[in-house]
Amino acid sequence: MSVHDRELLIWPLTAQPPLQARWIAPANVEHQHNTCFRARKSFRIRGKPSSSVLHIAAESYYRLFVNGIDVGRGPVRGTRAVSFFDSYDITSLLNSGENCLAVAVQSPNLPTFKVAPVETAVLIQIDGDTTITTDQSWQVQIAPDWRSDVPLYTFQIGYMEWHDLRNEPAGWKTGEDNGKWDAAVIVAEDHRIGGKVLLPRDIPALHERRFLPTELSSQAATPRLSDLAETSVAQRMSDEVHLPHLAAPNLLTNLLSNLHPELIEPLADGQGISLIFDFRHEVNGRFEIDITAPAGTIMDVGYEEELVNGRLDLTHFSYLFADRYVLREGRQTVSNVFAERGFRYLQIVLRNFDRPVRLHKMEAIERLYPYSERGSFQCSDPLLNKIWSACVQTLKVCSTDTLVDCPWRENTLYFNDMLVAAVTSLQVFGDARIIARCYRLAVSQALANGLLPSAVPVGVLPDMDTDASRIRMTIPSASMLLPSMLEEYLLYTGDEAMVQEFIEPVLKILTTFATWEDVDGLITLPKEYWNMIDWSYPNGSLDGLNTSTLNWMHVGALNATARLLGALGDQRDVSPFKEKAAIISRAIDRGFWDESKQAYIEYFDDEGKPKLISQLSHAAAVLSGELPENRMAASVVAMQSNAFLAPELFKHHLVLRALATQRCGQAALDRIREHWGPIVMSGSSTIWEMNVHQHGKSAFEGAGSICHAFSTTPVDFFQSIILGVRPLEPGFRRCRISPQTLDLDQASGSVPTPMGNLRVAWQRSADEVKLQLEVPHGMIAILDDGREMMVGRHELEVS
Questions:
Q1: How many CB atoms lie within 10 A of CB 571?
Q2: Pick from 310, 464, 674, 771: most CB atoms within 10 A?
């Protein structure tokens, strides 16, 4: 039986244009990895068209040109069950007479954590006055300028780019070259390829912003490159000697002023020139260099987030963060073409040039989801204000066609990260479209048993086959959190129709959990699943163990499912969920409570000896809704005990929330200052992946991310606890206003809701708190004393 169950595919299928085009490709590429090909079609039209809309889909990346004009790139990511097409109005780009459509397509032709190609192919259709569809009349060619036998950049992202611009056929975009072209081969007779559902793009176009470097961090000479064909580019850039050399004293000044190009003279003995540029903050997108160079000049490009002893370390584990471009004669623009790259520092090494090189311009181009920043927060503590700003910047840079974990290392949507990133994105931006898209993508690739692989799409892990990778990358703790994540989405958005789509998948997940229960209802996961709950645990995993945290999460999932069904008006009897939650809660208490420690043991070893006590277990217990009342006080103490294992930044989300529910907001705020404060005080404009047990870039042996969306939980605390705003009914129809002043003198901010922004400000004096509210139309804001505030501005005193 396949590990994938297509019956779980859910997606709105309305407003889908009928596509008659066929998927095409060059012959004999279906089994080739890392293929780049071009396709084009020349055609004549009479008169200027009044309407022409072009639809395009590709396995996996495309760059589209109409009459030589760059129209766009894509598509947005899908999964092995669903893919998407883009639509462009090209009416103004078409001419009366001759026209040419041209597209470059790249596919790793293996599953990564960004694309899930069936095979290398493209589909195009023009609707309107003239109908054009991809078929065997199109011309195709394997791109002679793209090298395919290169290593993976990372297994999550795909292959490095090796582009020899000398071999790119001049004029191919307009049909004016003399290159070798063949007739296209039809690889699928309709718009479904490999059984995938092809859907229209479900989010707006990404926004591009260009900016210049702020500093030239390093100039150096490098040894002559003897083997021009070697593929170990990242290793060479990391290891080669940097010799002192001032290549261009005024290089950055000239690039920034754009007065004239900077001249770089060749060095004796064929030495190269290394330049490291600092863009000040994290970039998720691409670089672009305007350069004049002799033919055969090599430009190696490396990407990193931090300098180490003035250098970039571009090799971590199997990761190789570098691309290579071989330049043609004359002036040209060089850029990473297909996949995004994440970086703050960009290193270029110019090699193999015997005449001067001229740098005209260097830019970074971020390509991000087009958010409007609606949420805000400001308080009397400047440190907390800095943390808010860094969290917002992190969320922006980690939002492309989905939410992603980090731009640099993986650029992957991890479903488990949505626990934090979904709610904090809604609290800052209020845009539900990208969040709904992430959830739908996750469920589209569910295993046959209903569980959700964490990476979306789920690629192939090193030394594993495809099915084994999908199972290994299925983190059951993430699926356990799905009901509460959907409940929160419903409260913040009111999108009942979207949440309704997920009820059957949620019930199927709970059914699978039931098959792993022992006689007491406690769960021990099969060892093939990654029992990853938090990176604070040894090796980030508790594989094959019966753990209190996972079981408390199961209790929470049952109760959240009951609440979710109730909120949707579902007529099913929810009492079995509540009863089962109570039974499991009692079993956890019997099996894991240690009276001498006044805490729950995380797990026991093979000899039955208690191993490890975690703060996270007690947070999950408090949040489950079933913690025995006589254990509450001890659990609150355990969450704050330095003797027990603290979670990393990600799952601190649960600890902060649990503390706040027990009116321990000050303790939670102290945690934020302790773990997030040093990040922003370091000068970082984004929030790190780790800063409890491991720290910043040094985490994961130097591969730690310093821009990670799952670490933005302070946003939630600032809005829901300090401003005191929590939705009580779907879509904020009713919400609670219950600010906790803690050790602050004042705070203010806005919270996005479907009805408009809810604005809150409070100021504390010696004996009172003055509260100002601005409530949007359609909302009822309820104070702690029961007063109900309707639309308009309100000024009042609260205790």
A1: 7
A2: 771
